[in-house]
Structures
1.
Amino acid sequence: MKKGFTILELLITIAILAVIMLVVGGVYIVGLQEYPKIFNQSQLQSNANTTLAGIVNNIKQGTKIPDSYDIYTKGASVLIIELPAQDTNGDFIYVDDVLQVDTFIYSLNGNDLEKRVFGYDLGVRGGDDGNPSVILRNVTALNCTYDVPSNPVEATCSITTEDRTNLKTYTYTATRTAYLRNKK
């Protein structure tokens, strides 16, 4: 009696291994194709959340949300916040017992979310003169609502961002609510 495998047994084994390799390879290829999309979506969410966290932090440090500043008017797509001006030691700046303020303006310019800072000249944020800095790109909407439109102490802001990759559009909206300093 001969020991070994017949040709039929070898062919069946090769066929089974080929099917297993096709399944494993298919799962691997799908993973490779989906990774960039999932990574882009994750980056989109992370960037929107980080940007909104910075805005919320400024609201929490703010003393007032004025109706207007310079050519800007508070509204759904424009947020104006007054923050206490600080010196290099981090102390608030008072002149004749009046707290000096830096004004932060967030607004949408096309698909760019911009931040402008009009700082008190002698403070650490002075001298910026309101030059815009883009803090987030691919923004389709900035929406801010206020608890009392005439004298708000609470602001709810949302940022909607969009990513178009591989002929698909992914949209993400982050929303946060914050109260001004010492107002709640």
2.
Amino acid sequence: MAVLETHVRTRLTAAAAVAAIVGRRVRPLRLAQAEGVGPRPCLVFSVGDDEVRMTMAGPGAHRKAELEVTSYADTHDACAALARAVKAALHGYAGTADGVKVAVAIFAGESATEEARAGQEGPVYVRTQVYRVLYREV
């Protein structure tokens, strides 16, 4: 796992409200194919559009990235509660861990869907949140 991804996992699993709901079921990229959508509730995250911030003198020390965090749960209410806990843990967050100093993480938007489960009644509820993150390696 890259350094920002490690930091994000540390932050999410250390947040009491998030940990109370998902425990350590916080994974990078996507759920394993063998798990389908895995034991729920759970979180999956990915980092994209990761680029160096440019300054007048050239490349700067900070990077900016887009962080996507997806909540999965068996009920709409459980998924909404997990998404609220994630937002409380990440929106406005700044801190240092795992060799990364996050200057700020800002909530940028959210979408909600439901996915059908093959051979089972009822959907899996999904909420995807996007955050803009300014950070640097330390």
